Amino acid sequence: MSVSVFPEENEPRIEALLQQMSLDEKIGQLNQYALREEHTGPLGKKGQVAKRMKLVAEGKIGSVLNLTGAKAIREVQQIAVKQTRLGIPLLFAYDVIHGYETMFPVPLGESASWDLTAIEKSSRISAIEAAAAGLHWTFAPMVDVTRDARWGRVMEGAGEDPYLGAQVAWARVRGFQGDNLADINALAACAKHFAGYGFSESGKDYNAVDLSRHTLQNVVLPPFRAALEAGVATFMNGFNTLGGVPVTADAYLQRDLLKGSWKFAGPVVSDWNSIGEIITHGAASDKMEAALLAMTAGSDIDMESDAYLDHLQSLVEDGSLDEKSIDDAVSRVLRLKFALGLFDDPYLRSSSEREKSIIGAARHHEHAREVARKSLVLLRNENDLLPLQKDQKIALIGPLAADKDTPLGNWRARAKSNSAISVQEGLSAYFDDDLDYSIGCQIVESSFDFAKKIEFAEEDKTHFAAALQIAREADIVVAVMGETANMSGEGRSRADIGLPGLQQELLREICQVNDRVVLVLMTGRPLALAWEAENIPAILLAWHAGSQAGHAITDVLMGAYCPSGKLPMSFPRSVGQLPMYYNHLSTGRPTAAPGLVFYQHHNDVDRRPLYPFGHGLSYTSFRFENLKLEKEEYYFGDSIRVTVELKNIGATKGEEVVQLYLQDLVAMPARPVLELKGFQKIELAQGESRIVSFQWETTDLGYWTAEGEWKIEAGMFRVFVGGSSEHLLESNFILNEKDEY
Ligand code: NOJ
């Protein structure tokens, strides 16, 4: 069922206002500029803010990004409302990606919780904090499906699967927006980047994308569709080209699909200067042409390029552009402003007292700890090394063990630097005592100066000796390693995704003196850890887990919480395997006859992922049995019920994510070998068992054609159920077109 966020009763008000607007005033609504410097949005020349404030007073700006704080926003809003002829309030937007000040795990990490209620709550709290700081609109969720861990922005999405991505997109949109955009706690959401940005060639950010329409429809678009159905108020296009067309100038995506067959009624914002970049892509000769292309294609708001500010007027005046397209874009912007209640009270979200009392509230941090521990994934646990025992002597080692900044992750909005609970703090609070600690080695972040050689680590091994000393004397080593916050995120693609710098070397030396090592891995992306997976007996994937990371990690290390996270993205053995994803096609040569070379594989590496999609261990064990379908044959229009018995056969209470996959065995075009089609996170006490059931309609068994039609093909289907995409029970059924009787 689709949610609608733009009330019908606002339409006459939008129309009436539009009638009063001059062309100049209309164009003003389509320009968006930053009023504060952000590392993602440099302001450039000095005096830029003053120049832009003048534009606000002249009604030439319709929305602002990167300005935050109830007081600052109120002041600028007053200028728009009081000094412009029509007093149209501004929209204030910001990238509130995984928290405003209280940080939740980076989105990829949070998706590993497979807990949609918890994810929705994080977005709700993010909205509550951001709205208290005067904001109306977040540029989130990023719903780009991604298959290549080299791409730095994998941290910002929900991973490689369109179904999980769609569920998470829905939860995040609902969380940000709540039930009513005019509510004081609501933030308009933005589904981005429309479309294909996550498929940049070789995982290099901003690189070209080339995709079949079939993949676009079935892999890239489903999370956008889900966001739309959840009522997402805005869309953002992107920096990439798709088949040579800059998506900002892509009329098929924006006009035909989004605003055409999907009937989206809100505004589409460009990405930062992506209208200007149409020229750099080589698809327009100057800004005037870029403005024409973008507006014609359906980009309503120009973020930062000046193209609309400088050229829309003359494009209309010389007849190149019909004013109707401007009217359409403006009415979309006004629709959002009315829906947010800005015309009724432009200062609703601008109370400094409220801001002070709400941001960083204790209950927000309680949730941050709760969702962080649900997001942790136990990748390996040989001989039940984890959980740790309270009487064990622990050596805490690693460049991220005492780091209070890395857990905040990239895209941390207004989180205060170094404000996260470190693992050292978490463990010390648990033991009420300091542990033996050594940094071991440093991680030096990649240089922002691209002319310089990019170095990830100092060659400085001075701390090795101290680390080895405490490792030798300990019962067990907890090594906290990985990537710093800024090694993933926008512009942070990496060609080598092993543990950066000296960390692996340090681990190798630690293993020589103590082989009881737990690796706590902080990262914004899957890493290639073939050596670690062989040699480190326990690996806990902690992502960049947010403000309460250290407590959440301690909860899992000490067994106060039984790990329940599952990978939303495959971990490769080697970077050469990328792109890697579980829902691939079969190929004509999927498996080898003994001794054969001519089949789909790399000669030098096991072709399976190191850790597959859906993988994640627990401190207890679960058994799946009795997978049942009520019938062997179904007919179009039937409901299909699948049941499986799940039993907790381990020694403690725990949660399992029951994953349901499907394979459509014969179709044209061919379908993937597995596709996630449902999941449930189930908690069971020790010894408890439960029948878990899933229900589909036969109409759910289809796929999108290249033209965007939903098609269901009769034939044989295979159903799989299990606790990861690799260990599955299976059964078959046949779908027939109609019941002859
Ligand atoms: C560029 C990013 O691609 C986009 O996701 C973000 O919302 C804008 N910058 C604004 O910061």
Radius of gyration, in angstroms, nearest whole number: 26 Å
CATH architecture of the domain at 366-577: 3-Layer(aba) Sandwich
Fourth-level CATH superfamily of the domain at 366-577:
Glycoside hydrolase family 3 C-terminal domain
Give the overall pLDDT as a whole number: 96
CATH class of the domain at 366-577: Alpha Beta
Side by side, the strands of the main sheet go 11-16-15-14-12-13
Count of runs of 4 or more consecutive helical residues: 20
Q: Could you walk me through the main structural features you see in this protein, from its secondary elements to its overall organization?
A:
The protein has 741 residues and is α/β, with parallel strands linked by helices. Among the domains are: 193-211 and 219-319, no CATH class; 366-577, Rossmann fold (3-Layer(aba) Sandwich); 622-736, Immunoglobulin-like, CATH 2.60.40.10. Helices cover 29% and strands 17% of the residues. The protein has a 6-stranded mixed sheet, covered by helices on one side. Strand 15 (517-522), helix 19 (530-535) and strand 16 form a beta-alpha-beta unit. The protein is globular, with a radius of gyration of 26 Å. The protein binds 1-deoxynojirimycin. The site of 1-deoxynojirimycin has 8 residues, from loops.
